[in-house]
Amino acid sequence: MSKKVWIDAGHGGKDPGATANGLQEKDIVLKLSQGIKKQLETEYEGIEVLMSRSTDVFLELSERTAAANKAGADILVSIHCNAAGGSGGFETFRFTNAMPASAALQISLHREIMAALNPYRVTNRGQKSANLHMVRESKMPAVLTENLFVDVSNDAGLLKRQEVLDALIQGHVTGIANHLGLKKKEEAAVSKNERDINVVSSWAATAWKAMTEQGYVDGSRPGAPITREEIAVMLSRFINNQQK
Ligand SMILES: [Zn+2]
After folding, report:
1. Residue 237 structural domain
2. DSSP state letter for 226
3. Contact 62, 136 (CB under 8 A)
4. What spacing in Å lies between the alpha carbon of 9 and ligand 1's midpoint?
């Protein structure tokens, strides 16, 4: 069963959100949202990421939650940047009367995003609750992230660096994956990297050829596991050869 994650990039189109220092909130949150979708779907199995918007278009808040509820998303994360906030920093919001799963999602997201931001000395403004439409009207566990302040010069400087956007994306991805218990694709793909059992390893080629010529093995499937009866046959051939 695939998990459905709804990523809601705030604002868009005629609504730029917060603007300052040459930054527009709507552009930053779209980049973050696209990055989160791409990384989640590339790195994890059993996941489908749906978006309120994947381009620069305007949507009412009610359209966003209606679409997420209709899609039956398992969780919703609304992505924003902040403004008018003194010293800047990162904070997250759940609904004031949030279900326990929303609080759990908030803990996971907040922890992982702050960890990813660790090299950049971002202020941790904490895990908060508020009566916001996106977290109130979503039927599934929902959290809104406020990703730094466009009007605080230090934060704005960070938001202009791709490595900081990548850290924010990584934090969201790990927080979501941990909350949903997603499995990394590498774990499932290991079998694809396994050896071909019909091809002898180079380090064993000489011995394999010699043992085949002497009849201890029949030369087939050099990489296959061996059974107790096969060992018994090989040992008996060895003993017979010694007695000749
Ligand atoms: Zn916003």
Report:
1. 195-243
2. -
3. no
4. 9
* Residue 73, pLDDT score: 98
Cα-to-centroid distance, 12 and ligand 1 (Å): 10
Q: Is the pLDDT assigned to residue 178 strictly greater than 80?
A: yes
Cβ neighbors of 205 (< 8 A, separation 6 or more) are none
Let me know the angle formed at the C-alpha of 85 by 81 and 88, rounded to the nearest 5 degrees: 70
pLDDT at 120 over 70: yes
CA of 194 to the centre of ligand 1 (A): 47
66-83: per-residue pLDDT in tens? Answer: 999 999 999 999 999 999
Angle at 87 between CA 86 and CA 92, to 5 degrees: 90
- 191: confidence class by pLDDT, cuts 50, 70, 90: low
Helix (H, G, I), strand (E, B) or coil at 17: coil
> Measured in angstroms, how far is the CA atom of residue 26 from the centroid of ligand 1?
8
| Residues that are catalytic | 146
Q: Are residues 177 and 205 in the same domain?
A: no
pLDDT of residue 1: 76
Number of domains in the chain: 2
Is a pLDDT exceeding 60 seen at residue 19?
Answer: yes
Do the bridges between strand 90-95 and strand 142-149 make them parallel or antiparallel, or are there none, so unpaired?
antiparallel
